[in-house]
Amino acid sequence: MTPAPAGGAPASAAEQTFWFTEQLLPGSLSTVALLHLRIDGPADPDALAAAWQAVRTRHEALRTAFVSDGGELWRQPVAQPRPVPVQVLPAGTAREDAVRLLCAAPYDLETADVLRLGLVPDAPEAPYTGAELYAAVHHTAYDGLSEVALGADLAEAYRQALAGQQPHLAPAARSAVRPLDGARRQELCAYWERALAGVPALPEQQPAQTHREILQDRLAVRPLPLAPGTGTRLRQVARRSAVPPFALLLTAVGRAVAELTGAADFLVGVPFSTRTPDQQDEVGCELTMLPVRLRDPSSADGPDRAMDALLDAMYHADLPVYDILACSTPDDTGRMQPYQVIAAYQSWPRDPLQAGPAVLRARPSSPCGPQGELLVEFYDEGPDDLTAALYVPAHGGWLPRAPELAAALDRHLTALTPMETS
Description:
Elements lengths: L8 E2 L2 H12 L7 E9 L4 H14 L5 E6 L2 E6 L8 E3 L6 H8 L12 E7 L8 E9 L7 H17 L19 H15 L14 H6 L2 E5 L6 H12 L3 H17 L3 E9 L13 E9 L6 H14 L5 H6 L14 E6 L6 E3 L2 E5 L3 E2 L6 E7 L5 E8 L8 H15 L6
Parallel strand pairs: 5-6, 9-11, 11-15
Antiparallel strand pairs: 1-4, 2-7, 2-13, 2-14, 3-4, 6-7, 8-16, 9-10, 12-13, 15-16
């Protein structure tokens, strides 16, 4: 291995993946994650900028540059990062337009340019008494679960700034990349070769798009309405069946996709957090994508099959995603490999955060650019507050079929979560 640059440390597999995508497709919104916070009360751009600077000083990932040297990618923390201004956008600016404006220029990962900030006030006149705050963060520095630690720290720093103080937060520890020993790597490679052997691609939804075309396309978002009470019934059935709610959601996605495509054996990409218990307060990208194989998801034991496949994949999640992909040998069609569909589930708590006279409320995280041919994401925000959305490339084949997919998903999810009777 090449010696590390002064003050540097090896980049993680997730960081390498998103860094490489940025080099290949500069400015692709597929490498951007969005933190969306609702501010009720004072929304002061200068105080917010000062608070964000304190958060960046606390969390190394938000001020890390990346250096490629000798075929290796290294983290290079910047001690005093350049302040990021909060851009005040016109009142009424939609989320999609805010992302487009904030990300008009590519990120520069060699200078720790990983963060863009935008404020959409409720009314055009300052001082602003309510707003939507958007932080478009490069995925090398942030994942969805980072929202929990980052939101709490931002609220504290913003409280200090609104009180007229210079915000200060104690530095947080950054975990080093954990090396994978040779024996475990060999075991993991053998598993993934077996798990991915012979899996067919989904039947194409016209017009076909290559992986590169997907990542360069515009994102189209469609809500997926769910029947009232779905969240409550989902929890009841999950408890009764001794499976996590996501196993049922994954089965419903599998059955809907199978119904619309005729496929009976296919992969679904599942975002999976690789955080360890000591990383719960850490901001950074601790994420991988697991190809989960669904075989005959429409069978009566579909949830048990999905659960077993999910557990197997999670147990073997420590192999880097690019090595997992190398274990499959699909036909060279140019399509996104080895999975075409992604299913995600956000279930972490989003409690209101007090920041002096202001209250911050985190909204569900959402992608800024296409992640695959089809992404179905569920948001669990309370006892019966389960919502879902469809994210697809604007020029792909799934967008015209969104109503059909929504109906199939709701039908299968309703069948999987019957009302509990006494």
